[in-house]
Amino acid sequence: MPGIKEVAARAGVSSATVSRALSGNGAVSEATRQRVLGAAEELGFVISYNASSLASGRTRNVGVVMPSVGRWYFAQVLEGAASALIEAGYDLTLYNTSDGPGHRESVLTEMLRRKRVDAVITVALRLTEEELAQLRAVDKPIVAIGGPLPGTTTIRVDDAGISSLATRHLISLGHTRIAHIGGGEELERDFQLGGTRRNGYESAMREAGLTPEASWISSAEFSVAGGFRAAKALLARPDVRPTAVFCAADEIAVGAILAARELGLRVPEDLSVIGIDGHDMGEVFGLTTIGQDPVGQGAAAVAAVLALMQNEPTDPLWESGFYPTEFVVRSSTAVPGSLRA
Question: In the predicted model, is pLDDT for residue 26 greater than 70?
Answer without folding.
Answer: no
